[in-house]
Amino acid sequence: MRSVTIRNVADLAGVSVATASRVLSGHPSTSEVARSAVNNAATALGFRPNAQARSLRKTSTQTIGLVLPDVRNPFFADLAHAVEQRARDFKYLTLFGNANEDAEQQDRYFDIMLTQRVDGLIAAPQGNLADLQAVLDSGVPTVFVDRVISDTTVPSVTPDNVTGVQEAVRHLTNLGHRRIGYIAGPQSTSTGRERLAAFQSALADTNADDDADLIFFGDFQAASGAAGAHHLLELPHPPTALLAADSLMSIGAIGVCNERGLAIGSDLAFVAYDDIEAFSLINPALTVIAHDVNAMGRLAVDLLTQVIAGETPESVILPSRLIVRGSTPSLPGGRTP
């Protein structure tokens, strides 16, 4: 008689092999529905898991999983470094996954990390609650960083997405800019939504043009920043200032300005979100909305160790601030920076 394999069990239960393995090994990172389906399938097929393999299960693997949106984004590269270094202080190794701003790719990394029995997860989540439900149901200690998912109790470390944006809009309008182009992040993310809402709220408090054509929706990747700059600069009445909602979109937009022969700091004012090192090296250096990425990474690890220990830490919102540099000139009638 042909022996029954774990794949047979997974197929009958309608779950992945990784999920079936976690259920049968007794790992807590499974939902009640998955446990019931797998156990019923195993019983129906007469499957008997290898006792020696089950005995290898450890209470702790001394690893944590880190899933971030895009490794090409210098901000997230700095965040990954901060998490890794702080995790070492607690004797944890960090397993890294690059979601590439894609919920499906994110979920594959989550599945692999849960299969590897990480002690906890840190994630800047993609998508909505449904995309994260399996992770939240797993019981694995989890902390969100930079982004959050609504209607969850997961502790998080996030930037203040309001203050810096409002300061940027006030700064530009004080300098005489009335047409401010905004390259927004995807509205499927908390950072994209909050920064756009802050921009629109700040415009309402000024005499700047509240023109829907001045808002372009990007996806936090360089190509959409370039597309946004093309769109905004080709308007019949183009903006005199641009504000991009993250560093990669800023890089894409700057490239378009260079291609068009527009001198940032004289022909066009520019404000970027995130104070990555390269922005201070551009001539003129970019005015940026900054927050402490190193503190964000370290605090995320600190919160995760508390969750692993069974505690319920409070979420942390880190302050943001505008750093004024040479990329934001005044217009006639405006105030000198």
Write the layout of secondary structure elements.
Elements: H1 6-13, H2 17-25, H3 32-45, H4 51-55, E1 63-68, H5 74-89, E2 93-98, H6 103-115, E3 120-123, H7 129-138, E4 142-145, E5 156-159, H8 163-174, E6 180-184, H9 190-204, E7 215-217, H10 222-233, E8 241-244, H11 247-259, E9 269-273, H12 277-281, E10 287-290, H13 293-308, E11 316-318, E12 321-323
Parallel strand pairs: 1-2, 1-3, 3-4, 4-5, 5-11, 6-7, 6-8, 8-9, 9-10
Antiparallel strand pairs: 10-12
Helix pairs in contact: 1-2, 1-3, 2-3, 2-6, 5-13, 6-7, 8-9, 10-11
The proportion of residues forming helix, as a percent range, comes to 40-55%
Topology-level CATH name of the largest domain: Rossmann fold
CATH architecture of the largest domain: 3-Layer(aba) Sandwich
CATH class division of the largest domain: Alpha Beta
Number of helices: 13
SS-derived structural category: alpha/beta
CATH homologous superfamily identity of the largest domain:
Response regulator
Largest sheet: 6 strands, parallel
| Gap from first CA to last CA | 82 Å
Assembly state of the chains shown: single chain
Strand content: 15-25%
Report Rg.
24 Å
Across the major sheet, the strand order is: 2-1-3-4-5-11
Principal-axes geometry comes out as: elongated
Low-confidence stretches: 51-58
In short:
With 337 residues, the protein is an alpha/beta fold. It has helices spanning 6-13, 17-25, 32-45, 51-55, 74-89, 103-115, 129-138, 163-174, 190-204, 222-233, 247-259, 277-281, 293-308, and strands spanning 63-68, 93-98, 120-123, 142-145, 156-159, 180-184, 215-217, 241-244, 269-273, 287-290, 316-318, 321-323. It contains 13 helices and 12 strands.
